[in-house]
Every structure is written in C-alpha cells, then in structure tokens.
C-alpha cells in the first residue's frame, strides 16, 4: 500500500467494474467471438469480414461521430448496422440484424458471475458505506451478481461522458446527496479512474495491479490518495 495524499473522511465508495472487480479481458474476447459466430450463422456475407474489419469500421464511425466514443452500446449498434449495409443487406435486414447482434453481444458480455470472495468483500463494506458502480462499460450489474451489493451503477451514454470526464462522478454524488469530496472511488485505471475522480473533486484509491495481475505505470497527472495492490488491501486501508 502506498499513501500519496492524506485521505479525508468519506461517506460512500464507488467502484469501477471492468478489471477492478473481475478480469474483463477474457470476457470481452469471448463475447466478441460469440458475436462473430452469430453474425456468420445468420448473415453469411459477414464471413467475408474478420474481427479487424469490424474494429476498423467502428474506429471510422467514432472519428466521424465523436459522441459515439462515450456510448459503447450505441457505437456497436451503428457499427453492426453500417457493416451489414456495406455487405449488401437491405436497410430492414441491417436494422434487424444490428439489433439482434447487439442483444446477442450484451447477453454474452454479461454471461459470468463475479467471484464469491469479491462479493463477500463488497457485502462487508456495504455494512459500513453505501456502495455504487461507475463504469465506462455496458455490463449488466444485476446479471453478474452485483445487484444486491451496489446501490446503483452509472454508465456513460445519452449525453453522459466516459471517465475521466466528471459527469458520472457529479451524477453519483447528486444521487447520494453527498459532497464530491465525500466519495472515494476505487478503480484500476490511472487515467479513467484516478484522474476522473480527482478532477471531479472526489478521493481516489488506485488498484494496481489490475484484477488480472497486470501492473500499470503511473501516467502524468494527479496522484491518487492511495494505491492498493488488491481489493483485500483496500479493506486494510479503510
């Protein structure tokens, strides 16, 4: 544990989800593969494209429509529709396929359960503090077992920007009815989580290494209040 700044008292804790409470990499890769197989089965023209072709299309769409960078669900939906159109499917077929593909991906993306040790840790913390989620992703917190331990989860999109923009931190503190400095945010990203929380006026606990054990290098910017090497070490800090 490393303490960089003197922490103040806080009255609620927010958690990033992906790579903080579980290893997100294998989950996303499996969901992406499942989506490709779904598309290949339902729309045979998609066999002409590899995963890289879809990613390139998504990059171009975000470049032309920067607001999509803050809404992963909308970006994927438009990517699917435009991809199917480009492969020769009609507007109706493309819209239907995009919606079906998105639903398939979202189901696969949330087809796991957070580990019991993490749930128990959150349950113990929830006896002392309100707990919430602030994520840049689109996982369904209820489906992965977090619905009973997090009071609510905030996602970007529909005008709400991703971390490190302060939008979700502001919204969280309004919903909790607490001042910004009374929220402690826990996350693995020094950019999204640490900078986001600090710039918003909240306190920050940086999980390093990530949940999968990958060590991160501190980027330029504001320091976290504390750096912990595991969620269990967070308990000791609190």
From TrEMBL:
<dbReference type="InterPro" id="IPR006439">
    <property type="entry name" value="HAD-SF_hydro_IA"/>
</dbReference>
<keyword id="KW-0460">Magnesium</keyword>
<dbReference type="InterPro" id="IPR023214">
    <property type="entry name" value="HAD_sf"/>
</dbReference>
<dbReference type="InterPro" id="IPR051400">
    <property type="entry name" value="HAD-like_hydrolase"/>
</dbReference>
<dbReference type="InterPro" id="IPR036412">
    <property type="entry name" value="HAD-like_sf"/>
</dbReference>
<dbReference type="Pfam" id="PF00702">
    <property type="entry name" value="Hydrolase"/>
</dbReference>
<protein>
    <submittedName>
        <fullName>HAD-IA family hydrolase</fullName>
    </submittedName>
</protein>
<keyword id="KW-0378">Hydrolase</keyword>
<dbReference type="GO" id="GO:0016787">
    <property type="term" value="F:hydrolase activity"/>
</dbReference>
């Amino acid at each position: 544990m490393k303490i960089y700044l003197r922490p103040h008292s806080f009255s609620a804790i927010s958690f990033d989800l992906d790579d903080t409470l579980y290893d997100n990499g294998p989950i996303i890769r499996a969901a992406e593969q499942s989506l490709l197989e779904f598309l290949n089965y339902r729309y045979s023209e998609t066999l002409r494209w590899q995963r890289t072709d879809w990613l390139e299309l998504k990059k171009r769409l975000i470049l032309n429509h920067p607001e999509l960078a803050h809404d992963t669900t909308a970006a994927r939906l438009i990517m699917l529709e435009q991809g199917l159109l480009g492969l020769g499917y009609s507007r109706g077929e493309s819209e239907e396929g995009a919606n079906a593909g998105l639903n398939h991906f979202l189901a696969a993306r949330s087809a796991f359960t957070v580990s019991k040790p993490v749930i128990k840790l959150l349950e113990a913390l929830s006896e002392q503090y309100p707990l919430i989620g602030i994520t840049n992703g689109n996982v369904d917190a209820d489906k992965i077992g977090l619905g009973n331990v997090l009071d609510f989860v905030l996602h970007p999109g529909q005008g709400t920007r991703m971390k490190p923009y302060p939008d979700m931190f502001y919204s969280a503190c309004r919903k909790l009815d607490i001042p910004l400095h009374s929220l402690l945010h826990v996350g693995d990203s020094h950019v999204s989580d640490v900078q986001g929380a600090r710039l918003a006026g909240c306190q920050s606990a940086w999980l390093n290494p990530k949940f999968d054990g990958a060590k991160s290098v501190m980027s330029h910017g504001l320091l976290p209040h504390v750096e912990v090497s595991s969620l269990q070490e967070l308990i000791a800090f609190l």
